[in-house]
Design brief:
single chain, alpha+beta, Immunoglobulin-like, Jelly Rolls, 4 domains, six-stranded mixed beta sheet, disordered N terminus
Length: 704
Amino acid sequence: MKKVVLAISAVFVSLLSYGQDDVFRPCGTSEAVKESLEQHPELLENVRALDKFTREFEQNPNNKLFDSTITIPVVFHVFHTNGAERISEAQIRDCIRILNEDFQNRNADSAQVSTLFQPIIGRSQMRFRLATKDPNGRCTEGINYIESSLHTAGGENLKSVISWDTRKYFNIWVCSVVASGAAAYSYYPGSAPGQNNEGVVTRSDYVGSIGTSSPGYRARTITHEIGHFMNLPHTWGSSNTPGSATNCNIDDGVQDTPNCVGVSNSSCPLSQNDCGPIANVENHMDYSNCRRMFTKGQVLRMHAALNSATGFRSSLWKTSNLIATGTTTDAAPMMDCAPKADFKVNYTRLCAGVPLTFTQLAYNVSNLDSVKYFWSFPGGDPATSTAANPTVSYSTAGTYNVKLVVSNPSGKDSLTKTSYIGILPSTPMYFVGDVESFETTTFPVFPGNPDKGWDVKPMTVSTWKRSTSAFTTGPASLSITNPSSAAGNIHTLISPVFEISGPLTGVKIGFKYAFARRATTNTDKMVISYSTNCGKTWFQAFNKTGATLATVTNNVSNNFVPVAANWKQEYGNIQFLSGASQFRLKFEFTAGGGNNLFIDDLQLTTITAVSNLQDDQLALNIFPNPSAGDLPVLEIRNAKSGKASLEIMDAMGRKTCWRKELYLEPGQAEVLLSKEMEKPKPGNYWVRLIMADRVMVRQMIIIP
C-alpha cells in the first residue's frame, strides 16, 4: 500500500518541475496546470486549501461516500467548420452514456478487472446529464455548435468565445485539434486560469465510442479528464512521463493505488511491478488500453472535491442548481425546444452559374419534422426558399449574404452569414511573366478592373492585407498580422484567374516570403493550392509548417518586420492533372502562435528545355528512346524516399494518357511501360515524374 502524502508537496511540486516534450500524450492536464500556476501563482493558495480540506475530509470518520447518485449538469460546445469535427448529437449522448457507466461502475468490462483489484473498485455515484435549461433559463439540449476555425488549434481560446457559468455547468469544449498536441486536458479544482476556464477541452475524435471516435481507449478519454477535474492525478503522480522510473518516488495522494511508473505505450501489462507492488494499470487514471475502474480511495478523494468550494465543484450538484439547469430528471421535456439555425453549403467560392446546394443543420430539437425553414438568398436564383436543403445559383460575380430562419411551435431562430458566398470572375487576369507585387493601393480590390479583385474570406481577425512596412519590390507586400493569441485562425485568399499559353509542363508559381516564429513550438502553416475548376477541387502546390516555414533561424518575440536577408525565394509546383490552361490560386495560412507573414513578387513561371533538366537528388531516364517495338522502360534514381506520381501526357501537355502512383525508396527503380499500359499511337509524348518538392519531365518518342 502507498503511504498517504500531502498532495501539495508530492503532486504539485513535481508538476512545477515538469518539462514538456514533443511526444503525443492522450492527456495534457499536467502541462495545462503547470502553465496556469506559473502564470497565476496566486492560484497555489487554492491548491493548498483544497489539499488541506481533502486530508481532513478523508480522515474524518463522519464523512462517507455518497449513498445516492448525485447529478452533474453538462454542456458541450462543439467548434467546427462543418467538417467531421462537427460531431453528431448522437455521438455526444453516447459519451454521456459512457461517463455514467464508468462513474457508477455499471460498465460491463468492470467484471474483467483482475481479482487483485476487484475488492477495491469504487463507485463514485456521479450521474452526468445534459442541461435542459441554458444560463438564461431557456430550453436547450445542452449542445452548442460554434462555426469557427479555432477548432484547428483548440485550447483556452475556445473558452473566450463561449463558456457557460462553471459554477452551474460542467463545460466540455470540443475541437478537431488541441493546440498542445494532447487528446484532451482539464484542470484540478481551482487551478484554472479563470473562473470560466474550469472544464475539459477535448478532440472531437475522443468523444464517445461512435462517429469519429471508437470504443475502448478513445471512448474513456473524457472519463480520465473528469478524474482530473475531480482532483485525481495520474496513478503514478501528477506528471506526464508514464514509464519513467522516477515516478516511483512521487505519489498521487490516494492510499489504495499502488506506486507505479504508469503505462507508456497504451498496452495492458497486468503484471507491471516496476515500483514493487503490482500496478493498477486498469485504473481510469493510467494510460493503458484497459482502463475500467476507479478505486475506493480515488472515489473518496473525488467526493472531497465535490464537497469543497474550491473550483465550484460543490455548487454543481446542489438541488437548487439542478432545478436551474433542468437536470433533476432524465425524463424528456413535454415539448421540443425552439430550434437553433445553422447551415452549410457544398462550396463557398465558385464561378457564376454553377449550382450550389445548401444544407440545413438546425439543432437543439429532438424532432426535426416539426421544423420549418425560410431561406433568403439576395442576388441568387431563387431569392428565397422554404425547402430544407435548397439549390441556388448566382449569375454575377460578387459576395453574397445568406440567411436562414428556422421555427417550430416552441419558437424560432435565425442565422445570417455575411459575405458567405463568393462568386468568382472567370476572365484571365494574370499570364506567364506577370508579376504581382501588391503595389495597387486598393488591393485586394481593383476599382478599374473588378475581374482582377482577389477574394478574402470573411474573418473576424486581421487577415491578408497590403503592407508598406516591408517589401522586396517597393513599396508594398502582402502580409498577415499574426498575434500569438490568434492561434487556430485560418486566413484564406483566392486569386483571380491565371492563364498559361503553350505547353503546360514545368509550370511553377514563384514568390518571395518572410516569416518568423515566436517559439520553437509554433505550428503556423501556409498552404498554396490551385484549382482548375473554379474552386470545386484544390491541389496543393506548396505546404510548409513550423520550422520549415520560418525564413529566419532565431525566434522573434516582438513584432516581426523582415529585412532584406529575411526574405526567401520559393516555388510551388503546378501539377496539372486535367490539362487545363486556366487556374486560380488559394493562399491559406493557419496561425499557430508564430509571428507575422509577408509575401511579395508573385509570378507565374515555366521551365524551358525540360528534356535537359538534371537533379542530383532525382533522375528519370527512358530507354530505348525513341522506341519502335515494345514500350520503353522508365528508370528512376532517387536519393530519398517519398510518394511520387508518374504521368504520360500528349505532345501539347494537355491530355493525360497514363498515370501511376508509387512510393520510391532511395536507390533505383524501374517501371516497365509495356506491362502498365497499351501502346499509344506513334508521336511525341511527355513523361513527368512528380514528387513533393520537384517535378522532372522527359520527352518520349514512339515511332511506327
